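Task card 7
Instruction: Convert sequence to structure tokens.
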Amino acid sequence: VTVNDPKDGASVFGVRFNGTDSAGNRLGLLCSGDKKWVVKSRTGETVAQAARCEPSKPYRVLLTLQEGSFSFFVNGTPLKPAGADAAALAKKDSEEIAHFYFGADDGMRDAGGSVTVTNAQLFNRAFTPEEEEYGDAYGDNEEEEGEDEEEDDKDDYDEEDEDDAEEGGDDDEEDLDAEDFASYTFEDSA
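Output:
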């Protein structure tokens, strides 16, 4: 994600829950007017802050839900709430995720900046600590040597797929690559 202009704060992305209380049904990541990464709770309170977010600089951002608690990461660094604020990121038993939003959500009208989001991906599995650190599931941030190895692995996978197709089966169901997941690029300005 790239924050183009934080102005008084730019809503980056978050999750909205079902329910009738529109003021208390979302968690989100923002770049504040003073250019800091901020996690906002359901009540609109700041529950975590991190280092500066610089305009026009690309960042890898990640939202995870593991063991009933949401976590936000920026370039692999978790934005951890302190003390009692940690409860603000816990998923309530009665909650269902209604949707994810990018840019301003209808309840985030006070955020007036703009953001560009590219390569948004949704996974239905837990990330490993290494994936959280790099902010992706494919090792796109590895050194060039690793990229060569990854390309070789992808070629091997493609050959295995062809062999399996000829044999009428797939013995390697757990091997997945980037083409197995939807990826969308779009721009949204708040």
